[in-house]
């Protein structure tokens, strides 16, 4: 239920709130210890991430699995960082 709430709230954030540099810092300090960036470089046809909404969903899902307290701003910034750095999905 908490994940659903985060996902719904996450989608409604304005694009101006996104900060890729801050997202990189959050990703490197909170996410990078459990998996490596190559996971974002897999062949697109084999990736769960096909759209920006998919990317946001995955960020919420993975953040929820860590048990760490992420803010909506954290989640949006991480998604922005990952999109600019790896996925390059249209808005």
What does this structure look like?
This protein is mainly α and 91 residues long. 58% of the residues lie in helices and 0% in strands. The protein has helices at residues 2-11, 20-31, 52-66, 72-87. The longest helix has 16 residues, at 72-87. The radius of gyration is 12 Å and the shape is globular. The N and C termini lie far apart (27 Å).
Instruction: Please report the distance between the alpha carbons of the first and last residues.
Output: 27 Å
For the sheet with most strands, the description reads: none
Shape: globular
How do the SSEs run, as a string of H and E? HHHH
Specify the structural class.
Answer: mainly alpha
Q: What is the radius of gyration?
A: 12 Å
Proportion of residues in β-strands: under 5%
Query: What is the β-strand count?
Result: 0
Compute the average pLDDT. 85
> Which percent bin holds the helix content?
55-70%
**Unreliable segments of 5+ consecutive residues:** none
Tally of helical runs: 4
